[in-house]
Amino acid sequence: MQLIITDAWLTKSRAFHLSGSKLLMAIIVSSFALMLISAGLYHWVFLKGAREGWPIIGTLVRLVVKDEVAQQDRFMRENIDVMAKKLGEMQAKMLQLESLGERVSGLAGVNPSDIKIRPGQGGKLVSGRDLSMLELQTTLQELDEVASARTDLMTVLESRLFEQKIKKMMIPTQTPVPNANLGSMFGWRIDPITGRSALHTGLDFPATPGTAIFAAAGGVVVTQEFQSEYGNMIEIDHGNDLISRYAHTSKVGVKKGDLIKRGQKIAEVGNTGRSTGPHLHFEVLVQGVPQDPQKFLNAGRQVAPAQLAQSNPQASSGFSPSKGNLAMPPPSQR
Questions:
Q1: Burial of 194 (0-12, 13-18, 19+ CB in 10 A)
Q2: What is the pLDDT of residues 31-80, one digit of tens each?
Q3: Residue 3: beta bridge partners?
Q4: Assign residue 53 a region: left if phi > 0, alpha if psi is -120 to 50, beta otherwise?
């Protein structure tokens, strides 16, 4: 392409030769320069019209601003809905965690009100920047994960504490005849019938016939029969090879296979079998070997009275032997 420029004053002319690539480059440069000029003019006119309130431009500005505000409002509402849902889930988990905490505190013997006191906090204020929406969502997610982990931990603790409480309830530590004086102790003594030295394998609780006999712990009745030595006898299996035996009863209120609760009435004091007077003969056997029941009863008296009252209403009126109320065994009791 050839371009000729003529000067009328100087009566001269100049010729320019443009190849295809040069022509294309010139068109691109010209177009780019025109775009920059147009953008500058548009920006200047738009800003001037917005500031001075030109009718058309002012309307356009309001439409643009309204659309941007609507988009931001939709974005905020979507994020608020997500955060509200997450907050609701966290509130449910916190209620579950609080309920678990109260149950675990009860099992551990701790007053729940003692751990609800808000700890004191303070210190120098060092202000930080505002959290972004993403950072706030991340923080909520982390709190949710912590709450889930604490809930799982409290559930495991509740299970373990409940298991330990059940095991304690299965140990014969409650006096089978409340308010009764203690007769013959466990150990060697002069047999009241033969007059010879013999091992007394349990504790005797003298009482009037018909006095209620309560289970020293929960378990399952494995024996309920009449024997010439023990008379009407009941044996309760508490698990872990631990058995309690109740002998010389007059009236039996349970049968073999019954599930017994701690403190449940199982029989009445009598004078059946090898006995010379109404009393309860109480034994504790571990793997079939007689143990001193007094050790188990002493362990039961070391439990807090509130816990005993919760496990059995009769516990508050249970037997508390001392040197002043230890009766000498009558020569007729076994």
A1: exposed
A2: 888 888 877 776 666 666 666 665 666 666 666 666 777 777 777 777 77
A3: 16
A4: left
